[in-house]
Amino acid sequence: MTGDGTATLLTEARSHQAAGRIPQAEQLYRQIIARDGRNAEAWAALGAIALMRRNEDAAAAFFAKAITFDERNARHHVDLALVLERQGRLQDAAGRLQQALAIEPGSAEAHGTLGRVYGRSGNLASAALSFERALAIEPDNPGTRYNLGLAFERQGRLDEALTHYEQARTL
Q1: Which among 134, 138, 151, 136 has a CA at the least distance from the CA of 163?
Q2: In Å, what is the CA distance from 31 to each residue of 7, 24, 46?
Q3: Is the pLDDT of residue 2 over 50?
Q4: N or C terminus of the chain: which is more exposed, having fewer CB within 10 Å?
Q5: 134 burial via Cβ count (<10 Å: 0-12, 13-18, 19+)
């Protein structure tokens, strides 16, 4: 298949997915992979569909395939990390997020997700640092601000926690 044909199929698949026609989108993504098994975008899209269907094992496998073919795409690493976090594989999730941040250091989502993973692991100092980094990039994110407050509260830093809870509430 030519690059133009793949691009056309990807456009059509994205359109179906955006409109909520998931079976049609999935069918097109699978056609793309059948013709070009190295298409990272199609693998990642299948991962997103599997995750939406709560099939975490399949989602992890699809996102890992996407990374195999496009390892410099931070989004793929973040997506896989989100699945790993859901599966309780926190150390693996942290590793993927660190890889995402090596590629895209300005990703507030990756910093915030890493903070959440660290918090769940009990590493509250690193959690707070990751949330602070996320807020330096995206200061008006109430979820990240709340999570920073939670990390501070769990460390016994109650005044700082209260400040961030109040800021989160006003955003």
Answers
A1: 151
A2: 12, 11, 11
A3: no
A4: C
A5: buried
Residue with tokens 């989004």, as numbered in its chain: 75
Token pair belonging to 21: 């026609």
Which distant-in-sequence residues (6+ apart) come within 8 Å of 110 by Cβ? 74, 77, 78, 81, 97, 100, 101, 104
Count, in order, helices (H) and strands (E) of the chain: 10, 0
pLDDT mean over 138-148? 97
Q: How many CB atoms lie within 10 A of CB 171?
A: 12
C-alpha to C-alpha distance for 34 and 72, rounded to whole angstroms:
23
Instruction: Give the residue among 85, 141, 140, 142 at the shortest CA–CA distance from 114.
Output: 85
| Burial of 159: CB neighbours in 10 Å, binned 0-12, 13-18, 19+ | exposed
Assigned token pair, 152: 């501070």
Whole-number pLDDT of residue 3: 60
Place of tokens 């859901």: 86
3-class DSSP assignment, residue 86: helix
Token pair for 30? 């699978």
Tokens of 75: 């989004």
